[in-house]
Input
Amino acid sequence: MAEHHSSYVPNTGIERWLDARLPIVRLMHDSAVSYPVPRNLNYWWTFGGILMFMLVAQIVTGIVLVMHYTPHVDFAFSSVEHIMRDVNYGWLMRYAHANGASMFFVAVYIHIARGLYYGSYKAPREVLWILGVVIFLLMMATAFMGYVLPWGQMSFWGATVITNLFSAIPVVGDPIVTWLWGGYSVDNPTLNRFFSLHYLLPFMIFGVVILHVWALHHVGQNNPSGVEVKDYAKDTVPFTPFATVKDIFAMVCFMILFAWFVFYQPNFLGHADNYIPADPLKTPAHIVPEWYFLPFYGILRAIPDKLGGVLAMFASIAVLAFLPWLDTSRVKSGRYRPIFRLAFWTLVIVTILLGYTGSQPTDKVVLSLGGVTKLDMVGFAQILTVIYFAYFLIALPLLGLFEKPQAVPASIADSVLGEAKAHG
Amino acid sequence: MNIASRSLMAALAVAGLAFIGTPAFAAGGVEHPPAQKWTFSGPFGTYDRAQLQRGFKVYKEVCAACHSLEKIAFRNLSQAGGPSFTDGQVKTLAAEYKVKDGPNESGDMFERPGRPSDRFPSPFANPEAAKAANNGAVPPDFSVIAKARTYERGFPMWAIDIVTQYQEQGVDYITGILTGYEEAPKGVTVEPGLNYNKYFPGNKIAMANPLVALFDDAGKASDPGFYTDGTPVTREQVARDVSAFLMWAAEPKLEERKQIGAKVMLWLILLAGMLYILKKRIWSRLDGAH
Amino acid sequence: MADQSMSEPNRRDFLLLATGAAGAVAGASVVWPLISQMLPDASTIAAGAPVEVDLGPIGEGKAITLKWRGKPIFVRHRTKAEIEASRADDAKITIDPEADAHRVKAFGGKSQDQWIVVYGNCTHLGCVPTGFAGDFGGWYCPCHGSHYDNAGRIRKGPAPKNLFVPEYAFLSATKIKIG
Output
């Protein structure tokens, strides 16, 4: 909201002195206190703050773990056990970090779904959205490399399978894989570089997050009605205390979920096989990635061709970046788009089901009609993959042309007051 | 509830039905091991000290001949939240073991009696020696075995497990294996060197029934005084005790974790309640607020 | 912006304070694990348990260096002449005055003054001094030129204290327990 002027007034001499030299207090004031937020934001909008909290929590626990971890194939597994057994509160740090990764993805998927539903990717928020896609990709890379570090069976074989994806690239595929490994297989050099990058990437995420927030504060937040702010006095409230208290409340609620896993179910989201030290001569019977990769893993396995599968998997994420131009509707919020809503919830269910197919053996039979026509996991995943891409490439472009949206309120204030009246 | 959350509920319900609709994954004749009652399950669970001590005796006299426990130090046996042996007992116990140390001044490795700070020495010098002594199968290390073994829970059980906090698949599985040896059913041939076990994936396990050391064919204890605390020596009891010990070995900070967890939960819920009221108050200043 | 007037400022202020306090307690209790994880862990503490040292092999006029808790410990078997020379200097110690008799321990009612057991780190900045060297026949620290006598007392140079004597006791005439 470029036209929104700074309301910071330095009161003391020191504040005036600093403000003239480095207006950092003004920056904090304008972006976290007086920053106007649409007054009709619902709780789905609190996940940005929750994600910021998770990023900081992961960095803090990660830095602590590095103080005790040894990135060497002979010691990695033992050093993790050393953290769990000997280091003061080491079990807490490690469980918080491992489950924190999962919680981070829970929050980011809700954050992405909220953006999809309310059309937050549309003009003028295209750059904001694309920065979000970049953060998502960096998160996936970070999480993948982090999972390799304990050097259990899933670490090792996950690293082997995922790095081998690059061998699908024609001509240069194999040299690239050798380069990634730093050897002829996943081994000590691989572990060392993954450790280095796992430490580096979160700070890159932090950098892109700053850009993401900058872009957000420049264009202003979208809101459930999808109508842009027209009158600051009527349509917005200052960030502090209104959004602050709401965000913190939501954050604490989210921490309850987080703590539930850390203290009561710390291994629920992990794999038992990763408590077996890595063995390059023996693959576990059932290799599955962490739950947050499952939908994409499902798409990978749906395509029977090696290169095709890899391309489809990367395309399923890359397509998000083109959303601002694929969605042709002039109405932003799904609240006023009945057919879009149907398509959106189909996408949500399809993505969950794709994750299910990714978690199951490929030859498992999903549906059997009269014992003759059988549908196995691969076939099921293929159907789901088609629907997934159809949402982005067919439904969104066409819906904008053919769908008849419901009446959109004239302003944010109207939408709030209208709802208040309806609720009596 | 607004439209979004109502729709989300509906979506989750539909997705849930889709899972239930798929036939369960059943591989051959493998049964799920029955769920045992454990003192350490649930949000306030604690280990049964006497059970851990009995379980350690079983490990030491039955399992330790083949299975190492290399992440555990003798001193762990007397730490809080464990079997609670006394420091004196641990010192005596450690001294019974020969630990490799060195090199000394003349450059030779030597053996000395164990100290509480030493970790349990492995029964084999290296994995190759273990393999050679065991028909080509390396007996796994037992330090984290209770977390490294599991069985498929399937839908909807895994979702229910989040709420009930059931997470004892590993110990249940170990108890199952120890009590799951039986005659192979008709039509199933068990190759030499393998044994039939109804809870082992694929049913054919390389390890012979380890409890034959303690029980005769009829299941009668060869030494009824094996337990010194008066606990009856039965197959099931011995299996459960050693499983519980292995759970402690894998998760020695379980009690501390759950105790801190209860405080954290209580505090977070309190904080959330206060924040909710504060949020309501602050937002009530707006006209037309909801 | 929308109306911001407060309807019940006092009750809200109290709630705000209470919530803030509860949040601060939560924050503070997160800080403790983060700090205490840097303290010595359980395996380090266990590895630093007391050790027994056999004095038998250390002949008169000889010394050994052993490692305990990651630090060198000097065990020196003094000759009669060395003990006498050290005692004679008792009055000349100016930097950290301490009698030779205070640097040794007794066993079975008899002073074991032939045995000097000290941490092998210079009390200046922690370097390891060289044995049987320096102006006083004790130790000499090459880092900044501190001279110690054969009882480990600082005689010359920048070090402020005598070499520290670890906690130890005689188990027999030829065996000590350090720690």
